[in-house]
Specification:
Number of strands: 73
Structural class: mainly beta
Helix content: 10-25%
Strand order of the largest sheet: 27-26-25-29-34-32
Radius of gyration: 34 Å
Oligomer: single chain
Number of helices: 9
């Protein structure tokens, strides 16, 4: 203390002997709001921020509640200037460890200085009240050293400071943020803090305040401190599909950020990222104008709520994690919701003003399924091109611009027409831009044309579809087009081959031509006859005019679809009749393909979640440039396929095979559909052709009654099954070891293993069940490619980790990890061999923390997201609370008092309302079916009949042993938990106390019990 005292005197002397401003001591205000003077007014501390002079009491001090982790301080200089401003905060009681973030540290503050703002973080280290002393210092705003001497006490020296004030902070336990703030200049706001301004005569967006992140510090209500404080997080209502964050920095400063990652704690939603900051980069300050944005689209999948965390890596180290709670409400009858990517403000429309997409979400009439029956998406026979307008609208919360990759065009039946875009738009701005979609008919019929606008960094794609009717009359033009396509094919595509294995490299596509997997072969083999169609139409009772317009015969299904569309366009058939005819056609096709033999080559049986194809060219053949491959289903109510693996994204196909995986994503309704794969090929920078092949996919109907549920559980069970296999075939392995099953015991070829599944509900705090014990300070994992030997390996991004219970444990990736961002090449890793990923844990209190890990895939798909739990035990003496009853104790071992000591309950066995966090609870593992407590009293007391209560219908507990009457010597009380369903619940035990004179009327303690799927202790009865 003496040394600290001397250092303090030397420091003050150094400040005071420096040059004093010629205009004298400045007139300074400090406030809790911009321009405020409620802390220091005209260089004098106000009464609320200093101890009572009579008794040095802190009773009237300005008090910060326990649920507030930081406060902002605003400095205003009214006259003169504050030279070399510094802010220091100290606490001597050990309850808090205050730290100050002040961007203007050491700089002058004048009346014209803007953004003179500091953030005081309290960093509670325990329970109780803490008096925090804050000092605003300056070379011309310090103690008068003529009145300071070595005999003065430190507090007397401190009291002489004109900028010294105090406040009281209430603490309710350890405060532990999960971000290491090493880049103090990052500022982020959301839409609530965005305002319009004019810069150089142009209207732009600016943040009125950094209400989300200020100087690298995440502000409330956007930071998770502990799971009992989730209610304090910003809540995103059910009707809000996305939230946009605006990134900036302090004038004159830049911030380098890595590739952000978004994670959801529960399976309620599947958030994805978009915006021009998704690949990281440099955040700058350009007159305060917003340049970089991040958009989180939540993609609700079931009703409920879930914390969602956006982690932004700060380079060279550290991160900022922004969290919200998303509420979701989904119509259970419609089943799981598929992924969509939202880009606020991005609008697409036709030249006539027909809106195709708004905020990056395609209107139903222009989806691939909607275009087949929508008159809005119909392009008549006389139209050979369509002008499309695209722009960003700031009125709808959009950014200034959004980059796009080169468009990709998919034609359902390329034998009918060829489509192209000659003037693509690669950067969408607020100015309206147009591109032209050319549609060159080659034969009679109708087909759907889909335009894909890929969003950079594999975030997703914006797609819209049109239906084109072709009735060409110039046969010479058709023949010329066909000859040109054949010439291109012979020159460029003869080398492409697709196989179902590394050994069978051309059994699907050989020399650029599909074999028995061709869509035409499947259509001919399983398609209906004209007699079948006529019989079905007669049942639909179409009008005579509509019936007379329809053909008597046809050669292909696209031809008959084109005829229906033409009759609708001529008004011979109404929209309702056309829809009825097309639906009837789909029913007939579904009936026919439903009879396909599962043993046939192009037929995929029930139970196959994904299928691998291998793309290559023969040895010695030049590489072929492949664009983004596409998969779609002829019946999206049966299957909505996705593509994964190295072959799913734009690449060069060589003689080293690239795997393309099709994840079928059966919707749970059952049925059969045709899944079509399109491979766009490019030459000289332009698309030269599209290779198409398909397969018949059988999907089983989900029946929850087979698993003890009811029909109403079908949608949820369908979602849960898809949750397990959502990344099936992605090519990513993660394991706890390097040999055998250990290489894939976490993630196997994209499928998250049951022990590491994400929590199915936000309340299931132990995730899938895998738990690290309290002795584990680190967790070593190995990330590897699941690609076959000799195939192209996959590439992944830098993993991200989040603790959803940071009050219990913090988590980080060690720099020594081979897959840490320290060793990343352009933010990614090519998995030529297994790479080590080591997670470090810092336990802060007793309890269980849910840890989420995200490994982004650099190919199509969002990567692997898995969770596990980390148990923590602190070494400090447990805290017992409540009224004392001498000699009354409850233990988990004979003679023990781990639960109750002298009538007081150990806080880890306290009820949720009586403790600071649910993570402080005693955790009962899924494998534990019963627990025994040992209870005694000396002297003896009278008790009532013990009671046990389950707070959620996860278990049906029963008690045996201890009963009402006299309690003296030790007796046993055994609870059998009787798991009924998967989930987690608090279990409360109550022993009534009889004839007690005053004091408490019962002894109450609680535990948290977890049950896993398939681990029920009693029969499930849903009757």
């Amino acid at each position: 203390m003496k040394l600290a005292h001397q250092l303090l005197l030397l420091g003050l002397a150094a400040l005071s002997t420096s040059a004093i401003a010629e205009d004298g001591t400045p007139l300074v205000c400090v406030g809790t709001a911009q321009g405020g003077c409620d802390i220091i007014s005209d260089s004098k501390v106000t009464d609320s921020f200093q101890l009572s002079k009579e008794e040095e009491s802190d009773a009237n001090l300005y008090t910060i509640a326990s649920d507030v982790d930081s406060m902002d301080l605003y400095i205003t200089v009214k006259s003169g200037f504050l030279q070399g401003a510094k802010i220091i905060a100290v606490s001597e009681d050990g309850v808090t460890e205050p730290k100050v973030s002040f961007p203007l540290h050491g700089k002058d503050v004048t009346p014209d200085t803007a953004d003179a703002q500091a953030t005081l973080a309290f960093n509670c280290a325990g329970d109780g009240d803490s008096v925090v002393t804050v000092m605003l210092l300056g070379k011309n705003f310090a103690a008068d050293t003529s009145k300071v001497n070595a005999d003065m006490k430190p507090e007397e020296v401190m009291a002489s400071l004109p900028g010294r004030f105090k406040l009281k902070k209430q603490c309710g336990g350890v405060q532990a943020g999960q971000d290491a703030i090493t880049s103090p200049w990052l500022n982020i706001c959301d839409a609530d803090a965005v305002e319009s301004a004019f810069v150089d005569g142009e209207e732009v967006k600016k943040c009125s305040s950094a209400n989300v992140v200020f100087n690298g510090h995440v502000k409330q209500p956007f930071t998770i401190v502990s799971d009992d404080k989730l209610d304090n997080l910003k809540v995103i209502p059910e009707d809000v599909e996305y939230i946009e964050f605006y990134l900036g920095t302090k004038p004159g400063e830049t911030v380098e950020i890595g590739e952000p990652e978004v994670l959801s704690e529960a399976g309620i939603c599947r958030p994805v990222l978009s915006g021009n900051a998704i690949s990281g980069g440099t955040i700058t300050h350009d007159k305060g104008v917003i340049k970089q944005t991040l958009t989180v689209t939540f993609n609700c999948r079931s009703t409920g709520e879930s914390p969602v965390s956006l982690t932004i890596p700060l380079l060279p180290e550290g991160s900022a994690t922004v969290s919200v709670v998303k509420k979701c409400k989904v119509d259970e009858e419609s089943g799981p919701v598929k992924q969509e990517w939202s880009i606020p403000g991005l609008n697409i429309m036709t030249k006539d003003g027909e809106k195709i997409a708004k905020n990056g979400l395609t209107k139903p009439d222009f989806t691939e399924s909607g275009a087949a029956t929508s008159r809005s998406a119909l392009v008549g026979p006389q139209t050979s091109s369509v002008d499309i307008t695209i722009f960003m609208s700031q009125d709808e919360g959009g950014a200034d611009s959004q980059n796009l990759e080169a468009p990709i065009i998919f034609v359902t039946d390329p034998s009918i027409l060829a489509a192209s875009i000659d003037n693509p738009v690669l950067q969408v701005t607020q100015a309206k831009q147009a591109f032209t979609l050319s549609l060159n008919c080659a034969s009679k019929g109708s087909t759907v044309v889909t335009v894909s606008l890929p969003i950079p960094n594999e975030v997703g794609e914006l797609k819209f579809s049109l239906q084109k009717i072709c009735e060409p009359s110039d046969l010479e033009e058709i023949e010329a087009v066909q000859e040109q396509e054949e010439a291109q094919h012979s020159q460029e595509q003869t080398g492409l081959q697709v196989g179902t294995s590394m050994d069978s490299r051309s059994d699907v596509v050989k020399g650029g031509l599909a074999t028995e997997w061709s869509v035409a072969t499947i259509s001919k083999k399983y398609g209906p006859s004209m007699e079948d169609i006529k019989a079905h139409w007669n049942q639909d009772s179409v009008s005579l005019e509509c019936d007379g317009c329809l053909p008597d015969s046809f050669d292909t299904l696209p031809e008959i679809k084109g005829a229906i569309a033409t009759c609708e366009a001529k008004m011979s058939c109404s929209v309702g009749e056309a829809k009825k005819l097309l639906d009837g056609l789909s029913e007939i096709v579904a009936e026919k393909i439903g009879q396909a033999d599962p043993n046939d080559a192009p037929v995929v049986p029930v139970g196959t979640y994904s299928m691998d194809f291998f793309l290559s060219v023969p040895a010695g053949f030049p590489g072929i440039h492949l664009g983004h491959a596409e998969a779609y289903s002829l019946d999206e109510t049966v299957s909505q396929p996705r593509l994964l693996g190295p072959g799913s994204s734009s690449t060069v196909i060589s003689d080293k095979p690239s795997r393309l995986a099709v994840a079928f994503d059966c919707a749970g309704t059952g049925g059969t559909t045709v899944v079509v794969i399109k491979l766009p090929l490019f030459a000289a920078g332009k698309k030269s052709a599209v290779i198409t092949y398909g397969m018949v996919k059988h999907c089983a109907a989900i029946n929850a009654t087979e698993f003890g549920g009811s029909v109403a559980d079908n949608p949820e069970m369908s979602m849960e099954i898809e949750e397990v296999v959502q990344r099936a075939g992605s090519g990513l392995n993660i394991g706890t070891g390097l040999e055998g099953d250990d290489l894939t015991d976490v993630v196997a070829n994209g499928i998250v293993m049951p022990k590491f599944l994400t929590a199915s509900k936000a309340g299931n705090q132990d995730a899938g069940g895998y738990r690290l014990d309290a002795d584990s300070s680190s967790f070593k994992l190995f990330v590897s490619s699941a690609e076959p030997e000799g195939a192209e390996p996959i590439t992944v991004g830098v993993p991200q980790v989040v603790s959803f219970n940071p009050k219990v444990a913090k988590v980080s990736i060690t720099e020594e990890s081979a897959i840490s961002k320290k060793y990343a090449k352009k933010g990614k890793f090519r998995l030529e061999e297994p790479l080590e990923l080591v997670l470090n844990f810092e336990c802060l209190s007793t309890g269980v923390a849910v840890i989420a890990v995200g490994v982004p895939l650099r190919t199509r798909g969002t990567g692997a997201h898995f969770e596990f739990s980390k148990a923590c035990e602190t070494t400090f003496e447990p805290t017992y609370t409540g009224d004392k009853i001498e000699g009354l104790k409850v233990g988990t071992t004979s003679g023990g008092d781990e639960v109750v000591r002298d009538g007081q309950v150990n806080y880890v066995y306290g009820r949720v309302k009586a403790t600071k966090a649910k993570t402080d609870k005693m955790f009962i593992a899924p494998s534990t079916k019963s627990s025994t407590f040992y209870i005694s009293a000396d002297p003896s007391i009278e008790i009532g009949k013990p009671v046990v209560v389950s707070h959620r219908p996860v278990i049906s507990p029963t008690l045996t042993g201890l009963s009402d009457g006299s309690l003296g010597s030790e007796k046993e009380l055994t609870v059998k938990y009787n798991c009924v369903w998967e989930g987690q619940t608090q279990v409360t035990f109550v022993i009534p106390l009889v004839n007690m004179d005053g004091g408490q009327k019962q002894i109450v303690w609680a535990v948290t019990k977890r049950c896993t799927t398939g681990g029920a202790d009693v029969d499930n009865d849903f009757s």
